[in-house]
């Protein structure tokens, strides 16, 4: 699944979040609510949450959009929202229609809101609509989060089937040149404080977090794989031979030759009395027969249960 925060307006909950205007009074699910009119609310919330440490839910952010006066007759005045996010949260912005400038912005790791007109290939809408440009992949495709999601949307027309691809759940991939004719305006956002940039797993900036060693307390465990027994904590201490194991260890060794390197069989019960996290990042444990690696950082592999 995507590592990005996604805000979808087409949920049952959003039918009950009022977002009224003079021309569209609130009526549950059919008028003046986030479900019908909240693409700007959702797109701006995604821009904020995927760029900064600020966290609001859809209802909270809708209330703020109404309070700041962003509700327009037919949708959201993004100029009002952008000014508010700059003033309150340090999310600077620039407005353009230049797709090359959008690509350069995304390659810096930042986010943008795209206002499509409803013209062109109509890849996201046949009327005015806001989506988030959340990133760019190694092939130069834009990674788009569309608030107005419904099943089958991107196979509905021949153009969508040809020019868009859906990955990672609800990420829509499209080439900049193929979207260019749909674009009315581009809002480029750059965080200046409280920065926390989130990325799709397909984004050129995505870096997988290093695994963290599990918490293991002294006690009795069972091996989930064959494990070598060492003289100390770490492979540099040297392996033990079978002859140096306890009698119980010898009974569960993979070899009977006392001069053979000592390995305990998968499923062997081991009582760990000491646990050490080494500078290599690997976790080692001490049992009566010696030391063994119980978790490897590379591959995030645990060898006990």
Instruction: Give the radius of gyration.
Output: 28 Å
**Poorly predicted sequence stretches spanning 5 or more consecutive residues:** none
- Average of per-residue pLDDT values: 97
Per DSSP, the total helix count is 9
Separation of termini?
27 Å
Q: Could you say which structural class the secondary elements and strand pairing correspond to?
A: alpha+beta
Strand order of the largest sheet: 1-7-2-3-4-6-5
Number of strands: 15
> How helix-rich are the residues, as a percent range?
10-25%
Overall body shape = elongated
**Main sheet attributes: strand count, strand direction, barrel closure:** 7 strands, antiparallel
Following the backbone from N to C, one meets helices and strands in this order, namely HHHHHEHEEEHEEHEEEHEEEEEE
Strand percentage: 15-25%
List the SSEs and their pairings:
Blueprint lengths: L11 H4 L18 H4 L1 H11 L8 H10 L10 H12 L1 E6 L2 H9 L3 E6 L12 E8 L5 E4 L12 H6 L1 E3 L3 E4 L1 H4 L3 E9 L27 E4 L4 E2 L18 H5 L11 E2 L4 E4 L1 E4 L5 E5 L2 E7 L4 E2 L3
